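Key idea: predict the complex, not the pieces.
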Amino acid sequence: MQQPESSDLSRILAPVLARHGKDSAQLLQILRDVQDACHHIPAEAIDQIAAHLDVPRVTVEGVVGFYSFLSTQPVGQYRLLFSNNITDQMLGKDDLLKYLCNKLWVEQGRVSEDGLISVDNTSCTGMCDQGPAALINGWPLTNLDQNRLDLIAELIRSQKPVAEWPPMLFEVVDNICRTDVLLGEPFTPGAAIKQVLARGAKETLAEMDQSNLRGRGGAGFKTASKWSFCHAAIAEEEGSVICDIGGNPERFIVCNADEGEPGTFKDRVLLNSHADLVFEGMTVGARVVGASKGFLYLRGEYRYLLEKLEGVLKRRREAGLLGDNILGQAGFSFDIEIHLGAGAYICGEESALIESLEGKRGRPRNRPPFPVTHGYKGRPTVVDNVETFACSARIAEKGGEWFAAMGTAQSTGTKLLSISGDVARPGIYEYPFGVTLRQILDDCGAEDPYAVQVSGPSGVMVSWKEFDRKIAFEDLPTAGAFMVFKRSRDLFQAARNFAHFFAHESCGFCTPCRVGTQLQKKIMDKIGSGHGTICDMEELKRLGFILKSMSHCGLGSSAANPMLDALEKFPDVFERKLKALAFEPAFDLDGALETARRITGRDDEWAHL
Amino acid sequence: MGTFMSKTITIDGQVVPFKEGQTIMDAAMAADVYIPHLCHNPEFTPHGSCKLCTVKVNGRNVASCTMPAVEGQQVLSDTLELNDERLSLTQMLFVEGNHICPSCEKSGNCQLQAVAYYLGMMSPHYNHFYPQREVDASHPDVLLDRNRCIYCELCVRASRDVDGKNVFGLSGRGIGSTLVVNSASGLLGDTNLAATDKAMQVCPTGALLKKRQGFTVPIGQRIFDHHTIKDVQLGDKHE
Amino acid sequence: MSDPKLKVRIATCSLAGCFGCHMSVLDIDERLLGLLELIEFDRTPLTDIKHCGPCDVGIVEGGVCNAENVHVLKEFRKNCKVLVAIGACAITGGIPAMRNNIDLWDCFQEVYQYEGGLEGGQVPNDPELPLPFDKVHPINEVVKVDYFLPGCPPSGDAIWRFLTDLLNGREPKLDYEMLHYD
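Result:
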C-alpha cells in the first residue's frame, strides 16, 4: 500500500488536529481518526501529533501500540475483524473466516498484496445474540453466513465504499426478550432530574442510599457510597458541606460503556434504546456529587452508536437537560462528552478507563488512591456502569424504597442479562435479582443445558448441578453475560477460547498476568492438541493460584477462572484430551524438524521423530 | 528523626516504624528488612509492575512498593508461600525474554540474576518463549538489547524524571510489550541519550549497557559473586 | 575397595554443549579419587560405551538441537533412575539457543552457501547427519528432568557438592557462591 505523501498527510491531519484541540487527553481520539483515514498511523503522523499536543514521540507511539484497532503498519483498506467469542465460534465463525480468506486469497492476519483487504480475529464485539459477527472498518456486521460473505467479498472486490453497502448487513437488533422496571416502563426525559431538583441533592443521595443500588459492572460496590466519597473528597479539601451546590468543575462523572466482557451486550441495548435513561442517571449523579463534566467512554466496537448518541445529547441540550442551568436551576451545569475506545478490554477496569480517557495507554493504576478521590486528571471521579446510571435515573424518579422492594435484601432491583449460546431465544432479559438459573434457562429456551458461563470469562462457569443457584451479589454476581452450553459442547474449547482472550487482552504491566496468561494459553493449546499430561493440569492450577494472588488488577486475578472452574467442575473435559503418559514434550518434536526437512529435501527415517 | 516515627507496622513479627507517606517497602528498607524487588528503586516513583515485592497485609496480597504503610498493619513477607510465588515470577521473567547469562556482559552484576540466586532458582521451570526481539547498537556509546528487558520502566522513569529527555517509553501490549525510543527512526542513535544519563545507571538487567566496558571486572569480583542482593541493597542505603 | 556391585552407576553425555561441564568435573581434582570409590561409569566420553545401559544417575550436558539429541536423551531417560540437567545449555538452551532468533534457512545459507571459500556449496542432505530443530531447547522440554545444576559451567565445587549430596541421600543444596548461571 502506498504511503501517503507528506502533503496528503498534512491535509488529513489538519482538520483532525483542529477538531480535537491541543489537550493531550484527546490523543486516542486523534489517533482513531487518523487510523480511519490512513488505515494506519504513519510515522510522520506520530511526529506531527506529538508536536501538536506537545508530548514526547514515545508517548504517542506507546498509545498506538497499546490499542488493537490502531497500527503503525497499514491494514487493509477493507479491514474485516471477526468476533472471536466462544459464541461466535459455536455459530461457525472459524469456518466462515477460512471461507472468506480463501475466497479473497488473503491469509489471516496479513494484508493482501494490493493492500485492499485484511482479515483477522478480534475480541468479542458484543453481538453474541446475532452472531457470527464481525467489524468492517469498525462497523458491525451481524448474522454472517456464507451467502453474506459472498456478498461482502463482491463488495470488497468492486471496492464499494462501506458506507454504500446494503444496510441489512449492518442491522443490529435489540432482542429484548424480558422486561421489568428498567426496560419495561416508559421514561420521560427530565423526569428524574425534576425530582432531584424538587427533592434536593442531599435527599437524592439518601434515596440512593436507601435503594441499596450496587454497581452493575459486577463488582457490586454500593453506588451511594461511591458518590458520597467522591463528593466528600473535595468537600474535605474545601471544607464545604455535602451537596450544597452543584457544579464544581473539578469533579467528574464517567459512564463506563466499555462493555468488553465476552458475552455481554446489555449496554449496547441500553445505549441504543434507552440512552436518555443513562444520560439522565449521569446527570443525577452530577447533581449529587457536584460535577459539571461527564464522559461516556464508549468501546470502539460500539462506534456505530456514536452519531445516535450525539443526537440524544444534542436533543437533551436543546431540552435544557444538559448544559448550563439545567431545567432552569441556576448554577446547575453539566455536559457529557463521548470518548471512543480502540480495542482494549482492560479499559473496562475503572482506573485503566480513566488513563484511556486521558489519552494514555490503558493501564490500571496503583491503588490507593482510588478514582473517587484521584480520578480523571487527578480529580475526584465517579466511574459507574451504564446500567448503574440507568438504575440511578429510575431511583431518582421513583425513590429508594420503591427500588429496594425488588430483588433480594443484598441485591436490590433488577439485572439485565445478555443471554447467548445454546438457547432458542438469545437476547436481553431483565429479571429481579434472586432469579434462579433454572428459571432463566427455561425462559430463554435452553436446549439440554450443561453449563453456563455467568458474567463472562472473568466470572464463573456454573455446572448443571448448580442450576438452582441465584443471580445475586450474594450468590452469582454478574456484569450480565450469560452464555449457555449444551451437553454436547466441548467445554474445554470454551475454556481455551477464554485463555486466548485473556492472553490477548493482558495489558502487560505486571509480570504474573503478562507471562501467566501466555503460559495458560500455551498449556491449553498443548492439551487441546492432544499432548497434555496430568502435570499440565497441575501447572494450570499453580498458575491460577499465582494469577489470583499476585496480579495487579482484576483482569489478571480472574484470568484463571475458566481453567480453574473447568478443572474443578468438569475434569473429564480435560482428561478426555490427555495422553496417558506422565510426560509429553513441550513442543511437537517431529514438527520442529519440518523446516530442516524442507531445506535439505530429506524424508528418510532419521529425518523424523 | 526518631520522635516523628511513632507509628509502626510489623513485618514478619518485627516492629518497624514508619513516617507518614512512606510505603511498606520504604519502611522495610529503612529498618534493614529486605523484600525482594526488581522494578523498585527508591530514587524513583514506585511502579509496582514486577510484583516480586508482594507481601500479605492483613491477609491480602499487595505490592509493598506502592502500598502506603498504615498504623498497625501486620505484614507477612519472608514466608515459604510468598517466596515460592516470587520464585515463580522470577522464572516467568527468565522465560519470557532471552536471558542467556553466559553471553551477557551484565552477568554477575545483574539484579534479575541476583534475585534468582537469592530465591534459589535452579532452573526457569517454564517453557522458554524464545521471543524475537530487536537489538539496537546504533548509539555510539550505548547498546540496547531488548532480549533482556523486563519492562520495569526504570530507564523510562529516569529519562523522564531526572534527565528530562523522555528517551524511553513502552509500546505494544501484553506479551507484545516493547521498549521504544524517542526517535522517528526508532533507533537509539537518533535520540539525545548520553551515556552519562541517569537512565543509563538504573537498568537492573543487561538491556541497557555502556559500550566498551564489558567484562572489565573479572569473575569473582563482580557485585553478586559473593554478596547476595539482600546484602547489597540494604548496604547501599548506608553508603 | 568397596564392592563394585554397590557402586552407583552414572552415565553422562553432552548434547548441544561444549563439553565444558564435563571439563569442570575434572576440577573436582583429588576428591575425584574418593568419588570413584563410590561410583562407576556407564556411557561417558571417558568409557567409549556407545549406548546408555541401566544406571542410577544420568547427567546430561547441552540442549537439544537436533533429532539425534532426542534419541540420546530419551535413551538416558529410559535407563536412568535420576536424570540431572547440568549447565546453562541443558537448562535454558544456553549459547546454542542464541540461534533461536535466526531463521533456520538463513543459518543454513550462511554456513553452507555464503561462507567464504565455499564455491558451489550446497546444504548437505546425508541421512547420517542429524537433522536440526527450528530452535534449540532445554532438555526438560523433551523429557522429565529430576534435578538441575546450573552454571556455565558449574564449578567443580558445585558439582562435588551436588554429587555428594545426591550419593548420600540428601536433597542437593548449593551454597550461595556455588549457584551461578554463567
